[in-house]
Amino acid sequence: MAQADDDQVPSAQGRDAEQRAAPRFTLLIRAAKLIVDGESEFLCVIRDASASGLKIRLFNALPAHRELAIEMSNGDRYPVEQIWSEGEYAGFRFVDDVDIERLLDESHGTFPKRQVRLRIHLDAILHSGGEAVRVSFLDISQQGACIESDKWLLMNELVRLETGVMQPIYAKVRWRSHPRYGVLFEQTFKLDELAHLTASLQPSDHPDAARGGREGSGGESFGGERFGRR
User: Fold this and answer.
1) Closest CA to 119 of 106, 107, 136
2) Residue 223 contacts by C-beta under 8 Å, 6 or more apart in sequence?
3) How is domain 115-230 classified at the CATH fold level?
């Protein structure tokens, strides 16, 4: 899963404080999310980690902030401080002591082996059974979403979601707890597509995030890698 590495943190001026004595682990790709001031959420990729800090690949410029935390796909959250930034990469230091083995092992926690979900603010029109009703997205991942709908939906029902910020989404209902429903997309998002889309759908007091979406996305695709099942 990971291999020890001692050459991941650049030695440029201004990064001396980020040079970590603890053993580092190079991760090919580990999706996570950065939480800004407890509310805005930005998809990212952890590229190496140690008990003292992380090197992260960002898809969007982070807005001005007071607090940062990194949250793994299993729900474990760790407060961090940004130490350096260069292009699409940034270095972060853990605020508290961290069990690095636990951080790297996502088979435990509240949501073991689950895809990263990002909270968003997005309304949509849902087409179901000849009706068109307004719904709201509560969160989204590469392969599905949680929506809120006043209309009762059937299990395994195929629906169409139109948002105005991306192409129509076809999805099947996989769970329900009315008025909340979990849907599984027929066509999944690439990681960079989801990152650009969700950055543009964060609270308006963090307007600095780059906008983007499934249409016309030109970011790095990581070979079209799609992370597990929702």
Assistant:
1) 136
2) none
3) Thrombin, subunit H (2.40.10)
Peptide bond into 179 cis (omega under 30): yes
Taking the model in full, what pTM does it have?
0.77
pLDDT tens by residue, 32-64: 999 999 999 999 999 999 888 999 999 999 899
| Separation CA 97–CA 204 (nearest Å) | 33
**Class of residue 122 by CB neighbours under 10 A (exposed 0-12, middle 13-18, buried 19+):** buried
Distance, C-alpha 175 to centroid of its chain: 21
Q: Are the beta carbons of 26 and 2 closer than 8 angstroms?
A: yes
Q: Going by CATH, does the domain composed of 3-104 fall within 3.80.10.10?
A: no
Domain boundaries, the chain: 3-104, 115-230
Is the distance from CB of 49 to CB of 100 less than 8 angstroms?
yes
DSSP SS3 for 88: coil
Say if residues 47 and 222 touch (Cβ distance below 8 Å).
no
